[in-house]
Amino acid sequence: MEHDLPGTGEQVLLAGLGNPGPRYVANRHNIGFLVLDELAERAGGRFKAHRSGAEVCEGRLAGRRVVLAKPRSFMNLSGGAVVGAARFYKIDPDGVVVVHDELDLPYGSVRLKFGGGAGGHNGLRSVAKSLGTQDYYRVRFGIGRPPGRMAPADYVLKDFSATERRELALNIDLCADAVEALVAKGLTAAQNEFHSR
């Protein structure tokens, strides 16, 4: 596959999507931030405010240099900070990996892909618009569909349920493992490993 390993250089940008501020910390929509916090710990770095408009952490994962970015803007405008970080660190779109919540996957499942549409996800729409392409990597964390008649927009801004929280740390670890596998071995190998779970 042409775009199997993120980036042509040694450096990769890992961007987690979420909303800034204490009110949103444990929301389903913020799973991208939660996974990046785990990756920052593994990379041995700390997030710091950056002029790109993101909180940025530099480190190494799977033998490669990585830049982790959590936009300080709200979800619908997160593309500006992702592009700002990519430009600052001279990383092309095919070296960008976006970690985000996915309504169309069962809770806790992890799927990886390259390219494709936004599927109604405003954060992805913003990233694609700012990058000028949909050709970047995505690591999708399943949050499941809202129960009953709850609107998806309300569901994603609610915290994980008590039942979900029991498995949350484990699922965050799994998603972080998938990101590391993508960075180390490429898309096909990571899909083969994580899509069977």
Give the topology.
Elements: E1 11-16, H1 31-43, E2 48-49, E3 54-61, E4 64-71, H2 78-88, E5 96-102, E6 110-114, H3 122-131, E7 137-142, H4 152-156, H5 162-185, H6 187-194
Parallel strand pairs: 1-4, 1-5, 5-7
Antiparallel strand pairs: 2-3, 3-4, 6-7
Please tell me about this protein's structure.
It is found in: Cytoplasm. The active site is at 29 (proton acceptor). The record marks 101 as: Stabilizes the basic form of H active site to accept a proton. Strand 3 and strand 4 form a beta hairpin. The longest helix is centred in the last third of the chain and has 24 residues, at 162-185. Strands 2-3-4-1-5-7-6 form a seven-stranded mixed sheet, with helices on both faces. The two termini are 22 Å apart. The protein is of the alpha/beta class. It contains six helices and seven strands. It has a single domain (11-194), classed as Rossmann fold. It is 36% helix and 21% strand. Helix 1 (31-43) crosses helix 5, helix 2 (78-88) packs across helix 3 and helix 5 runs antiparallel to helix 6 (187-194). 42% of the residues are buried. The radius of gyration is 15 Å and the shape is globular.
Outline of the structure:
The chain has 197 residues and is α/β, with parallel strands linked by helices. The protein has six helices and seven strands, in the order E-H-E-E-E-H-E-E-H-E-H-H-H.
